[in-house]
Structures are given as C-alpha cells and as structure tokens.
Design goal:
This protein has 93 residues and is of the alpha+beta class. Helix content is 31%, strand content 11%. The chain has 2 helices and 2 strands; from the N terminus they run αββα. Strands 1-2 form a two-stranded antiparallel ribbon. It is globular.
Length: 93
C-alpha cells in the first residue's frame, strides 16, 4: 500500500558540499555517467530512457568501497542491486 500522508515524511537532505558523504555521492555519480557513456557509444540504449541497457536495473559496484577510501580509479563493475547492497562490505571473521 502506498504511503498516504506526505506531511509525516521528512524531506531528504543531502549532506553539505565538502563532506565525506557528498564526495562519495559524487564519485558514484561519475562512475554511473562514465559507464552509461561507454555503453551508449556502442548503441546500448534502445528504449531511450537515458540508462544504458547494460546497466538497466543494476548497480555500479566499486572493487574497493568508497566508505573504505576507494575511488573510481580502483575499478568498478556492474552488479545486481541485491548482490551489491547485501554485501555491505562487512568484515569477514
């Protein structure tokens, strides 16, 4: 059932410019844009929605997580949303 009372919901606010969260968000956006640009050159957006078909419904996964100091230069891959978000880069015992 959809959420009905919009007044009860707090508005999402992005972190201020220069903060760690802001920097990580910009890194994620750059990785997505770069991946989409490469795929579009190869003719990979047949439904014209702005996302590359290769990445449709998937996440960009960083090989070294941004929360652990990773960057786009460390490498990115395409992964399902469930797999990428469930891993959560937890410490293995």
């Amino acid at each position: 059932m959809p959420y009905k009372n919009k007044e009860d919901r707090k508005k999402q606010k992005n972190k201020p410019v220069g903060s760690k969260e802001f920097t990580a968000r910009m890194e994620r956006q750059r990785a997505r844009q770069k991946m989409d640009a490469k795929a579009k050159k190869k003719g990979g957006d047949k439904n014209k929605n702005g996302k590359a078909d290769k990445r449709e419904g998937k996440d960009i996964s960083h090989k070294k997580p941004l929360s652990k100091g990773g960057k786009n230069e460390d490498g990115v891959t395409i992964e399902s949303k469930k797999k990428n978000r469930s891993r959560n880069y937890k410490k293995k015992n």
